[in-house]
Design goal:
With 67 residues, the protein is of the alpha+beta class. The protein has 1 helix and 2 strands, in the order αββ. It is elongated and about 85 Å long.
Length: 67
């Protein structure tokens, strides 16, 4: 019968939690240091990608009426 390694699962969970906390901290620092609102986010392959800033919806074009 196979014995479950609970310590491995616990360690993996702790490492994931630590990694997530570090990513949040890094994101906060980037927001603080970059006043333009553009935030760099890390992709899984390690490349840094620029995330779009919060955008407002574009209103539809206004048609001018000829008088």
């Amino acid at each position: 019968m196979v014995k479950v390694n609970y310590q491995y699962e616990k360690r993996k969970k702790e490492l994931d939690k630590k990694r997530k906390k570090e990513q949040k901290l890094k994101l906060k620092q980037q927001k603080k240091n970059n006043p333009s609102g553009e935030v760099l986010t890390e992709v899984q392959d390690g490349a840094m990608v620029e995330a779009p800033a919060e955008t407002m919806p574009v209103p539809p074009p206004v048609e001018e009426v000829d008088k």
